[in-house]
Design a protein that fits this description.
Blueprint: E1 4-9, H1 16-26, E2 30-32, E3 36-37, E4 52-53, H2 56-64, E5 68-74, E6 77-82, H3 83-91, E7 95-99, H4 102-111, E8 116-122, H5 127-136, H6 141-155, E9 163-166, H7 170-189
Parallel strand pairs: 1-7, 1-8, 2-7, 3-4, 8-9
Antiparallel strand pairs: 3-6, 5-6
Helix pairs in contact: 1-7
């Protein structure tokens, strides 16, 4: 049986990365999508493992030739999701996990010909976004303000997702995420 594309989005500080790490520990049928980037390769990174490293010209060719499911320019570097990698892994029966922002989620809905399962991750309460950002201790006051404003806009996008998942306790949220994945596998097996 073919796999499918699993898109996880949500506002900043919803705990998407934590859920992804826990899910990858639990399941071997899930593979994290490897992004294409024009960012320089750091010393500890490997091409085709951490990222697919490309020049700006090569990235522009990928865009022009419709080889990306989604892409964005972040701080002068391009990042994107290669269609070929996703399609190959799905044919191998893998669930390809894509942790992206809502703009990327919107592009995937437009550009991915098969249905993707999309899940919007939320903190238990809206106020938790600010609490989690402050708890990190990595953001300036200005960055916190910007992220909170962005989160407000991102929350409006929940209506475009198949499910929402409240990330209150990591184990409980990951259990629910696995239930959703199994429901989707069952649904797809009947098609």
């Amino acid at each position: 049986m073919d796999g499918f594309l699993l898109v996880l989005s949500g506002p900043t500080a919803a705990g998407k990365g934590t859920l992804v790490k826990e899910l990858l520990k639990r399941r071997d049928d899930i593979v994290l999508s490897i992004s294409v980037t024009t960012r320089y390769k750091r010393e500890n990174e490997q091409d085709s493992v951490d990222y697919f490293f490309k020049t700006k010209e090569e990235f522009q060719d990928l865009i022009k030739n419709n080889k990306l499911l989604e892409y964005a320019n972040v701080h002068g570097n391009y990042y994107g999701t290669p269609k070929q990698f996703v399609e190959e892994k799905i044919k191998e029966g893998k669930i390809v996990l894509l942790e992206i922002d809502v703009q990327g989620g919107s592009q995937v809905r437009e550009n991915f010909e098969d249905d993707a399962l999309s899940i919007f991750v939320l903190p238990p309460k809206k106020v938790d976004i600010e609490k989690r950002l402050r708890h990190r201790g990595t953001e300036s006051e200005e960055n916190i303000k910007t992220r909170l404003e962005t989160a407000e806009k991102e929350l409006e996008q929940i209506k475009y997702y198949d499910y929402y998942l409240i990330n209150d306790y990591v184990d409980k949220a990951t259990d629910r995420l696995e239930e959703i994945i199994e429901e989707e596998r069952e649904r797809r097996s009947k098609l």
